[in-house]
Every structure is written in structure tokens, then in C-alpha cells.
Write a structure and sequence with these properties.
Layout: H1 4-25, H2 35-49, H3 62-75, H4 82-95, H5 105-114, H6 122-125, H7 143-148, H8 154-165, H9 172-190, H10 199-216, H11 227-239, H12 247-253, H13 264-273, H14 285-296, H15 301-316, H16 323-327, H17 332-344
Helix pairs in contact: 1-15, 1-17, 3-4, 3-17, 4-5, 8-9, 9-10, 9-15, 10-11, 11-13, 13-14, 13-15, 14-15
The chain binds ADP-ribosyl-L-arginine and magnesium ion (2 copies).
């Protein structure tokens, strides 16, 4: 059982992780990450972590914007509803449309607005000719749900994640990616960061859950019926050194795209690869390594770094985060307040 003080710091850590990964990853999105770019990245993060200097905030993107919308829907006095979540998304999107949203999800927001949220999941079901989106947009915003369900059972968490996903993502790969990320955060919340992380055990528990989840999905999934199980097997091969974890192998096996299947397991790998020690080391190294490594893989850098850092923060708590780095991110104080509010809902 995790003590209350530690759990609260994990609430801070995971939401701060979402924000920092997003803000720091966004400038590198889609860039070719050769050795020169990796050096630029290292220097960039060193500067942000170093002695504080006043500079314009690093703006967050859709990842954090929609995470805040999910948190607000969970904190709503009338209780969580898909309609309220849809309303939050629409308000947030039209407040600032230039936060790098997915190219298709914006159609969902437009239809939701035009129909005044009459059917909060209807527009999402119509995406991609009725296939629904398998983008990582539902997974990238799932952290508040994992926190909200910290004291409830897995079934409740998974049901709520599914409900929240369906407002924009109805393809099973988009939903299962969000469930995988939520289950991974849940495990991080339950572990003691003063002990060395047993990565093998952590991964095998996740795999057990995913195998059951994919078995229970409709049979119409054809070749995708065990898609996440396969990705988790690949994470295991890379982690255990059965396959050399070179960037090339990681990208070939796990991917770095905006698709949930090719980014959620990648974020999980980034966290596990960079987390071998414990908080007792007190050097704040693992969180920073997770951030830098996730961005260094290129591709969907804001989202992969955001999801990986949410895991690292949920495992270590906010003690693992260099305060100066956080100060450079837009709305960092508000993120702490949201964590406080979600924590106060726990019974
Ligand atoms: N979109 C981006 N970044 C790309 C460019 C931003 C650039 N800075 C700019 O200004 O142009 N980042 C954000 O999008 C990802 C989350 O996306 P989400 O919310 O899942 O959106 P969407 O549109 O539903 O899906 C994303 C793409 O995935 C492909 N896709 C999804 N389902 C598909 C299907 N059934 N069939 C075929 N393709 C499918 C499409 O290419 C979608 O556009 C995050 O990275 C966030 O940071
Ligand atoms: Mg983004
Ligand atoms: Mg992204």
C-alpha cells in the first residue's frame, strides 16, 4: 500500500510528466534525429534544467490541452459524462486551434459543435469511413482517468477509459492503446520508487491484462486480434537484450508514429529502458533520461515523450523532476492544482 504523501507526489509527477514531455517534445516533432539533432536536444534540455532564466513559456500542444479537458470532465460536479467531455473538447479546440491537433480529429470537433453534442460519440464513429480513428489521441490524454481510478478496480478504469476514448476514437486499436497506457500508469502508481523497478514483472502483468482484453474484443479484428500483445513481446525482446535496442531496431519493431499501436508501446519502452534504478539514487536522472530518449527517437516526439514521462512521473513522483524544467512549461501551476483536485476525490 502506497502512503498518501507518496501517492500525492505521484499524482503531481504523472501530470507534470504529461506537460513536460509535450512541451519539450513538440519542437522536435517530425524532425530527423541524427547525431547533430541529438546534441541540440541534450543542450536544449540542459539549458532548461539549469539555473532559471525568464523566457517565453514552452507552449503545450493538443496532448496537454485534451488531458486538461479529461480532468475537468472527471472533476465536474455532476459526474463524468461523454457529453460534458465532448463539450470540453470543443471549447478547448475553438479557443486555440493551433495546438497541433490530429488532422482528422478536428472534423469530430466541428461536427460535435455543429450538432451541439447531441450524439457525443456519433461523429467519432463516422471517422475514416466508419472504421474510427486508431490515432494515439485517446491514449495521450488518459492520465487523469488513471489517477481518478487509483483506488478502484481495473474493470472500472478500463470502462471509463473506453467511454472517454469513444468521443473521438472508436477504432479498437485507438481504444486499446488508451487502456494500455492507463494500465501502465496504474501499475506505476502502485509501486514503491524506493525499490528497484522489476521491469520483467511490470511488463508481464501488463501483458496478462492485454491478452485478456484482446481476447474479449470482437472477433472482427482479423489480423489485429493480438496486435498489442505482439508489441509488448517486442518491448520485452528489446528490454532483455534478445534484440539489440539500437534506434533502428526500436523504430522498426515499435514505431514512432501518431498511430496508437506504434507509439503507446514505444513510450512504455522508453520509460522501462530508462528506469533501472530507484528514487534512492536521488539524482533525478531517470525522468530526464526518459524525456531525452523518447524525444531522440523522433517522429511523434511530443506524444511519445508525454506518455513516457507520465509513466516516469507516476512511478517516481514529482521529486524526480527538476523544478526549473517545469517552470518553463505553460500552465505548470494549473497542472499542480488539477492533480490536487483529483487527489482530493480519492476516498
Ligand atoms: N497531429 C499531430 N502532429 C502532426 C502534425 C502537427 C504539425 N505541427 C502541424 O501543425 O501540422 N499531433 C497530434 O496528433 C496526434 C493525435 O492524433 P489523434 O487525436 O489521434 O488524431 P486523428 O486525426 O484521429 O489520428 C491521427 C492520425 O492517425 C492516422 N489514422 C488514425 N486512424 C486512422 C484510420 N482508421 N485509417 C487511416 N489512418 C488513420 C491519420 O493519419 C490521422 O491523421 C498526436 O501526435 C498529437 O500530438
Ligand atoms: Mg501534440
Ligand atoms: Mg504528437
Amino acid at each position: 500500500m502506497i502512503e498518501k504523501v507518496l501517492l500525492k507526489s505521484k499524482f503531481y509527477g504523472s501530470l507534470i510528466g504529461v506537460l513536460i514531455g509535450d512541451c519539450c517534445g513538440a519542437p522536435f516533432e517530425g524532425q530527423l534525429m541524427d547525431s547533430g539533432s541529438k546534441l541540440v536536444l541534450k543542450n536544449y534540455l540542459n539549458k532548461l534544467e539549469g539555473p532559471f532564466f525568464k523566457a517565453p513559456y514552452k507552449k503545450f500542444t493538443d496532448d496537454t490541452a485534451l488531458t486538461i479537458c479529461v480532468a475537468d470532465a472527471l472533476l465536474d460536479s455532476k459526474g463524468f459524462s461523454q457529453k460534458q467531455l465532448a463539450k470540453n473538447f470543443v471549447l478547448e479546440y475553438y479557443k486555440d486551434t493551433r495546438r497541433g491537433y490530429g488532422s482528422a480529429v478536428v472534423d469530430v470537433f466541428a461536427k460535435l459543435r455543429a450538432t451541439k453534442m447531441a450524439d457525443p460519440t456519433g461523429p467519432a464513429y463516422a471517422q475514416f469511413g466508419g472504421n474510427g480513428s486508431y490515432g494515439n489521441g485517446a491514449a495521450m490524454r488518459v492520465t487523469p482517468i488513471a489517477l481518478f481510478c487509483a483506488n478502484s478496480n481495473k474493470a472500472h478504469l478500463m470502462k471509463l477509459v473506453q467511454e472517454a476514448s469513444l468521443v473521438t476514437h472508436t477504432n479498437v486499436l485507438g481504444i486499446n492503446g488508451a487502456i494500455l497506457q492507463a494500465l501502465a500508469i496504474r501499475q506505476c502508481l502502485q509501486l514503491d520508487p524506493n525499490e528497484t523497478l522489476d521491469r520483467k514483472k511490470y511488463l508481464s502483468e501488463l501483458k496478462e491484462d492485454i491478452v485478456i482484453l484482446e481476447k474479449n474484443n470482437d472477433a472482427d479484428l482479423d489480423s489485429n486480434y493480438n496486435a498489442y500483445e505482439k508489441q509488448l513481446n517486442a518491448v520485452q525482446l528489446l528490454l532483455e537484450g534478445d534484440v539489440e535496442p539500437s534506434d533502428e531496431n526500436v523504430l522498426n519493431m515499435l514505431g514512432h508514429s501518431t498511430e496508437a499501436l506504434y507509439s503507446v508501446p514505444t513510450a512504455l519502452f522508453c520509460f522501462l529502458r530508462c528506469t533501472s534504478g530507484s528514487l534512492k539514487d536521488k539524482d533525478q536522472r531517470s525522468f530526464r533520461d526518459t524525456l531525452e530518449y523518447a524525444i531522440s527517437l523522433g517522429g511523434d516526439t511530443d506524444t511519445i515523450a508525454s506518455m513516457a514521462c507520465a509513466l516516469s512521473g507516476a512511478y517516481f513522483g514529482d521529486a524526480a523532476v527538476v523544478e526549473n524544467l517545469l517552470k518553463h512549461c505553460e500552465r505548470s501551476e494549473d497542472i499542480r492544482k488539477i492533480a490536487d483536485q483529483l487527489f482530493s476525490l480519492l476516498n
